[in-house]
Amino acid sequence: MSTHRVPLLTLSFLAVLAGLHWLAPDKTLLYFSAADIARGEAWRIVSGQLVHADLEHLLWNGLGLAVLGTIVEYRSRATLLAALGAGTVFVSALLLSPWSPLDYYCGLSGVLNTLLLVALWQEWRISRSWLLISIAFACAAKLIVELSQGVSILTDVSWPPYAWSHLAGLTAGLFVVWVNLQYTDGHSKLQCRGDRHCRP
To answer: Which pTM does this prediction carry?
Structure first.
């Protein structure tokens, strides 16, 4: 099997999640906290997305990362890194904004929504399957219910859900898709310039 087919980045991130959960003596020092970040504890911007409140929280998010990360990485490792980075930035921006009521936040669920949207887009470009459209609508309906009711539909963990971070993650996914489309379009135009048979 080619090493390109082995999701090395996804497996590495899963190892980081597990390591932080079992090896960090005091996980509260890793939680996302806008007040502590303002005091200079900048590592919380990243660690807050990677550390989890309890084992069930870790297992659900780890499962999501294993599935979605593998799908995205199979198509492009660069896109996986871009999605993880954009998701972290967008979710963190929300949590640092005046609109966030949270003192603390932890977990990867916001960033997983970035991966979800990017994975659906990647597969849609190839298959044009209506199943993917159905999944997208189901995910949108789930998010609307979670935003309006303040509950988590699929999981029931000790950490209270914050559905707005999921919306921030989806917004980051749209950004990654837009950047990819801009790059693809620009690359196609460059190729056309060198091909006299190319048509606009």
So the answer is: 0.89
